TrEMBL record:
It comes from the Bacteria. It holds the Pfam family YjbR. SUPFAM superfamilies: YjbR-like (SSF142906). This is MmcQ/YjbR family DNA-binding protein.
Length: 111
């Protein structure tokens, strides 16, 4: 599957209280004002929230799909190569998981 930035955008914006902004020369997505996704590298990858322990396991297990940007080593973020995603379900799961980590409790409890 070759995932595009537009497909990421559609999934992200389908989630409650999500807005898109353009910051740091790239599209960024926030839920209730909290950042949960960016589309760097000319929209060929996405950066999403991911607990550090989980992130490190993902990178070890699938280094062609996941990696850590040097400036994000100390933060709970992981990069995902869009062209390496298996299908739309995987895209939706990754984006939704990142959204849940940033969303206010009242939004995640109502799902």
């Amino acid at each position: 599957m070759t995932t595009t930035g537009d497909e990421v955008r559609a999934v992200a914006l389908s989630l409650a209280r999500t807005t898109e902004q353009f910051e740091w020369q790239m599209p960024t997505f926030r839920v209730a004002g909290k950042l949960f996704l960016t589309l760097p590298e000319n929209e060929t990858s996405m950066a999403v929230r991911c607990p550090i322990a989980d992130r490190d396991e993902l990178v070890q297990a699938e280094p062609d799909k996941f990696w850590i940007a040097p400036h994000e080593v100390m933060n709970a973020w992981v990069r995902v190569r869009l062209a390496a995603l298996d299908d739309v379900e995987e895209l939706e799961a990754i984006v939704t998981d990142s959204w849940r980590q940033a969303a206010p409790r009242e939004l995640t409890e109502s799902e």
